């Protein structure tokens, strides 16, 4: 089974830290980096568990802001926009992961 894995270097005020992120968390991080200051929403970037991916990325020290935005339509309410606030450098790689 091939699974997306990213090596991410997080720049902080105390230096740099490197982490490896894989699977859907890596997919979400890649989307956040590509979106820049515009950020990502589950509406524009469909994924089954955006809130879960963001939670996991925050657990490893990545700063992500959540902005709640209203939306209209058949089911009006609010949705989240996630904006990457950490400065991240990615090195993409695909790796073989045991099933």
Q: What pattern of helices and strands is seen along the backbone?
A: EEHHEEE
| Count of beta strands | 5
Total domain modules: 1
Largest sheet: 3 strands, antiparallel
Quaternary organisation of the protein chains = single chain
Globally, the shape reads: globular
Number of helices in the DSSP assignment: 2
Strand order of the largest sheet: 2-1-5
Report how far the terminal alpha carbons are from each other: 6 Å
Broad structural category: alpha+beta
What does this structure look like?
There is one protein chain. The chain is globular, with a radius of gyration of 14 Å. The strands form two sheets. Strands 2-1-5 form a three-stranded antiparallel β-sheet. The mean pLDDT is 88. Helix 1 (23-35) packs across helix 2. The protein has 99 residues and is α+β, with helices and mostly antiparallel strands. It has one domain (2-96). The protein is 23% helix and 45% strand. The N and C termini lie close together (6 Å).
């Amino acid at each position: 089974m091939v699974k997306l894995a990213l090596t991410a270097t997080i720049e902080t005020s105390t230096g740099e830290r490197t982490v490896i992120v894989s699977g859907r968390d890596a997919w979400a991080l890649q989307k956040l980096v590509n979106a820049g200051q515009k950020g990502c929403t589950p509406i524009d970037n469909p994924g089954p568990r955006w809130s879960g991916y963001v939670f996991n990325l925050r657990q490893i020290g990545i700063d992500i802001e959540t902005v709640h935005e209203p939306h209209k339509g058949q089911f009006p309410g609010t949705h989240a926009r996630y904006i990457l606030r950490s400065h991240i450098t990615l090195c993409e790689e695909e790796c073989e992961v045991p099933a």
